[in-house]
Design goal:
It is an enzyme of class 2 (transferase). This is 4'-phosphopantetheinyl transferase superfamily. Its EC number is 2.7.8.-. The chain has helices at 21-24, 36-43, 47-62, 116-119, 127-130, 138-156; strands spanning 4-9, 13-19, 69-71, 77-79, 85-91, 94-100, 103-110, 167-169, 179-185, 190-200, 203-210. The chain is of the alpha+beta class. It folds into two domains: 4-101, Alpha-Beta Complex (Ribosomal Protein L22, Chain A); 108-210, Ribosomal Protein L22, Chain A, CATH 3.90.470. A hairpin with a 3-residue loop joins strand 1 and strand 2 (13-19). It is globular and about 50 Å long. The two termini are 34 Å apart.
């Protein structure tokens, strides 16, 4: 039985999206082993985060990844495996996992009925980004732009926190399998990346690979 709803695999990168609750209802959870550090981290989480934590690790075991996940001081996940990088995201019932030979950032967001993304758009949408957002598809654009900036934030390791000042998305049109140019704006220079997005049921998945 396949538990994933989306799978992308190349020679250097694997991205999989799961429904995390499947693992809480199966034998995978009972077989899960946590290191002492993971147990300490687990105990510090809220009940919601604990479920997501267990779901992610069960999903990793399901796809054959037996390495433990560790976190740096910014709570960025990493693997003690030379040449492998990991990024994680979860939104409601979905878990997104990316493992790559390159640094990678991933985000998944649900299209919420309460339109929260519209209410908070001033916190992350720059003036030069608002001009290309089509009003008929505002929520789609907002979720994609948020996902891109969240992926850039993870890629950078949580160093730059302002989604207005430190991350920028170039104009784009809603197209399937399209590439979007985006930037991390640093103090002395800017660095360009390419972001990719895909709609999966009621979620938007975004990822950026730093090749």
């Amino acid at each position: 039985m396949n538990f994933y709803t989306y799978k992308f695999h190349t020679l250097h990168t694997m991205i999989i999206v799961f429904k995390w609750k499947h693992f809480l209802e199966t034998m995978f959870l009972r077989k899960l082993y946590l290191s002492d550090k993971e147990k300490m981290f687990f105990l510090s989480l809220s009940e919601k985060r604990k479920r997501e934590f267990l779901g992610i690790r069960s999903a990793l075991r399901y796809i054959g990844i037996k390495m433990n996940i560790f976190y740096n001081e910014k709570r960025k996940p990493f693997l003690f495996s030379e040449g492998k990088h990991i990024s994680l995201s979860h939104s409601f019932e979905k878990i997104a996992i990316a493992i790559s030979s390159y640094h990678i950032g991933i985000d998944i967001e649900k299209l919420r009925k309460d339109k929260k993304i519209v209410r908070i758009k001033k916190k992350f949408i720059r003036d030069d980004e608002s001009i290309f957002i089509h009003p008929n598809y505002e929520e789609d654009y907002l979720h994609i732009i948020w996902g891109i900036k969240e992926s850039l934030y993870k890629l950078e390791g949580g160093i730059f926190y302002s989604f207005l000042d430190h991350y920028k998305v170039s104009p784009f049109c809603l197209q399937k399998n399209s590439r979007v140019s985006c930037w991390i704006i640093k103090n002395s220079y800017s660095q360009r990346f390419s972001a990719f997005y895909r709609k999966i049921e009621e979620h938007y998945l975004v990822y950026i690979i730093d090749k």
